[in-house]
């Protein structure tokens, strides 16, 4: 609303100042202000065709470009603004034409070129009222290119340095979107890291299970050759091996507990942020089953030792 009122006042003043000297231009501007862009184009073109109005040809080309931009005909708008900038570099509307060039490029999704033109505008015209708008379109271009951190910095310039600009609310909204996106990216990184650690631990557990299976075969072979060794030597050897396996089981239990805590923390974080969680219960159950089998193996050999010691 504030922009519309200001725009209307400026146009009224401009039309009034031109009405007595250049009534043709004033008529075109009145049509433009009323939203009759097609009619405004005809008025501005008539000015260009009239050699007696050569002194205002620059104004006509500028407003032809503006009319095409308002109609959404971006290619025609770009051609006319380029022609104006090339032929009327000293015109009072030249700074705005540079700004409009950057804006047209943004609308054409030529984001890199838009950024270059708008930065040139900011450097060449430090006191121009379109500076806040230029920063906004630069930030929006960076956002569209995926440079989210840089975009947030530029949006913050609009909010902090130009609080009266009508672009402030849009800039704040973009900042809120970027902050939300950053939180989602951090959670995704955490999920990926935790999942990789979980899979690594699962593979390690499976590897150790195969080691235990090989140990079973080794114990069976030793039982078969029990008569070849004295019972004391056999018992001591088995006790040492069981102690080693018991230490491995304790370490494995610690890893499982740590892994379970990490998974629970991750699920809690994802639940708080509203992100869909991954269900890992089946894999956790598999790990616990492996641990149980290892503990049963340990108990088997402890029982066997006890029976053999009683016989001795």
Describe this structure in words.
By secondary structure, this protein is mainly alpha-helical. It has helices at 2-19, 23-33, 37-49, 57-71, 74-87, 94-107, 111-124, 131-145, 148-161, 168-224, 231-273, 281-311. The longest helix is centred in the middle third of the chain and has 57 residues, at 168-224.
How would you classify the quaternary structure? single chain
- Write out the CATH superfamily name of the largest domain: Tetratricopeptide repeat domain
Unreliable spans: 1-21, 275-280
> How large is the share of residues in beta strands?
under 5%
- So what's the CATH class of the largest domain? Mainly Alpha
Distance linking N and C termini? 101 Å
Q: What class would the helix/strand composition place it in? A: mainly alpha
**What's the story with the biggest beta sheet?**
none
Q: Tell me the CATH topology of the largest domain.
A: Serine Threonine Protein Phosphatase 5, Tetratricopeptide repeat
Helicity, in percent?
over 70%
Number of domains: 2
Tally of strands: 0
- What is the overall shape? rod-shaped
- Overall pLDDT level: 77
Radius of gyration computed on alpha carbons: 39 Å
CATH architecture of the largest domain: Alpha Horseshoe
Helix tally equals 12
Secondary-structure element pattern, one letter each:
HHHHHHHHHHHH
């Amino acid at each position: 609303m504030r922009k519309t009122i200001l725009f209307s006042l400026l146009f009224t003043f401009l039309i009034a100042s031109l009405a007595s000297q250049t009534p043709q231009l004033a008529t075109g501007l009145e049509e433009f202000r009323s939203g009759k862009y097609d009619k405004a184009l005809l008025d501005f073109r008539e000015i260009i065709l009239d050699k007696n109005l050569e002194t205002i040809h620059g104004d006509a080309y500028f407003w032809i470009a503006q009319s095409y931009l308002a109609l959404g005909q971006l290619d025609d708008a770009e051609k006319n603004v380029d022609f104006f900038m090339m032929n009327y570099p000293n015109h009072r509307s030249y700074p705005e034409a540079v700004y409009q060039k950057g804006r047209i490029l943004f609308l054409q999704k030529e984001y890199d070129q838009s950024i270059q033109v708008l930065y040139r505008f900011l450097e060449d015209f430090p006191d121009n009222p379109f500076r806040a708008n230029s920063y906004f379109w630069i930030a929006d271009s960076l956002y569209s290119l995926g440079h989210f951190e840089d975009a947030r910095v530029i949006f913050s310039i609009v909010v902090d340095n130009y609080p009266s600009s009508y672009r402030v609310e849009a800039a704040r909204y973009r900042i809120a979107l970027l902050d939300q996106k950053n939180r989602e990216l951090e959670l995704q990184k955490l999920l990926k890291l935790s999942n990789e650690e979980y899979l690594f631990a699962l593979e390690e557990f499976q590897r150790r299970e195969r080691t235990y299976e090989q140990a079973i075969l080794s114990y069976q072979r030793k039982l078969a050759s029990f008569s070849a060794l004295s019972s004391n030597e056999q018992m001591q050897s088995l006790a040492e091996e069981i102690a080693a396996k018991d230490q491995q089981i304790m370490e494995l239990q610690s890893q499982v507990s740590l892994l379970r805590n990490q998974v629970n923390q991750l699920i809690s974080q994802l639940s708080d942020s509203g992100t869909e969680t991954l269900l890992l219960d089946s894999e956790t159950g598999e790990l616990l089953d492996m641990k149980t089998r290892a503990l049963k193996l340990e108990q088997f050999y402890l029982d066997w030792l006890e029976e053999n010691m009683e016989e001795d």
